Amino acid sequence: MDRTSPDLTRLMDAHLALIATDVERWLALFTEDAVVEFPYASSLGGPARMEGIAAIRAWFAPITKHFQGLTFTNARRYPGVDATTGWLEVHGAATLQPGNIPYEQDYVMRLQVRDGRIVHYREYWNPLAAPRGTFESFTREQA
């Protein structure tokens, strides 16, 4: 039996459609006090946790510039133990800029929703699949 709420399913689909193409519309999916976590990002010089829309915006604003053509395929959705939490497994492909570097990554994403918006997002990915220096350059750019 699928326990995933219609809000969660809608938010999962919207998240995949917007994260790499329209940061402002993607941010509108989140609560003001949302938390975004990348448990492995610190190994590449990126933040492991961002709290609040301002912090999330500061990190993601340049993403569409760097991750050009990011597309997700093979999306598989898994309900959590309640209707407010769900998991996604997806394959992502993009061209990293600068340098036109091909990028392929398998992701596991966890979304938790409250009142029809994302309150907590955690994304797991393989840091070895990202070219060395990728996230350090994003961090320098935001400083």
From TrEMBL:
InterPro entries: NTF2-like_dom_sf, SnoaL-like. Pfam families: SnoaL_2. It comes from the Bacteria. Residues 17-121 form the SnoaL-like domain. This is Nuclear transport factor 2 family protein. It comes from Corallococcus carmarthensis.
